[in-house]
Amino acid sequence: MVPIDIRAGPAGFYDLSPHHPNDIPFYLERLPSPDARVLELGCGTGRVSIPLARRCSFLQGLDLSEAMLQVGRAKLKAAGLGEEEVRLDSADITDFDLEDRFDLIIAPFRVLQNLETDEQLAGLFRCIRLHLAENGRCILNVFNPNRDPETMRREWVSDSENLAWEVQTDGGRIACYDIRRGIKHEPMILYPDLVYRRYVGTEIVEETVLTIPMRCYYPAEFVSLIESEGFEVVGKWGGYAGEEYAVGNELVVEFSVGA
Question: Which of 59, 138, 140, 185 has a CB 3.0–4.6 Å from the CB of 53, allowing a cystine?
């Protein structure tokens, strides 16, 4: 059975968000050489894929959402990038085998947090291990929770709509709202709804809702997860401008297969 593409509706709105992190320079700096081969897990519309593909020998992107990939492929064509430089393919990032190895593997903008189960996490790390070159590195990130676990469990859920962002368009505007619908306590997983609306004047002419899981990790827990899979942590930051780990809004960890 073909899985339902939960991002089919929101795919056309994703690139409009002004809240994407300024992470592209960070990933560019970590390309080991212009000859590097890169694997991007959860590549989506190619926000990170395209600038990296211009600076490495080849980039392979994987994503489960065909709708997001279609947007990304159109952007690749417009950018003049061919399949010898970059490919964006449909795959489950917890269960794939490309029969290839890569110098750098990344999963930008909290892709890891969409994996709800321990089985999915084990599958992701198995695939990373299978595809990482001998001296290769992998970079994963999650958000750094802004409340302690008990406060998060007690206060996070809310039925109110919060405006996340809006942009003006010809004849109207597009807005994204978030609603904090639910939370699972153990492991802690947040379930926000992202509501995308297109307005002409005050009239809503299009609306689509995306419900996503966001599994939470605290700083020590995130490092422990990676090390428990047998990897060696070689760098960690609290953001993409070199912030101290556990201090910034993000938790960014770089690791290798170790000895």
Answer: 59
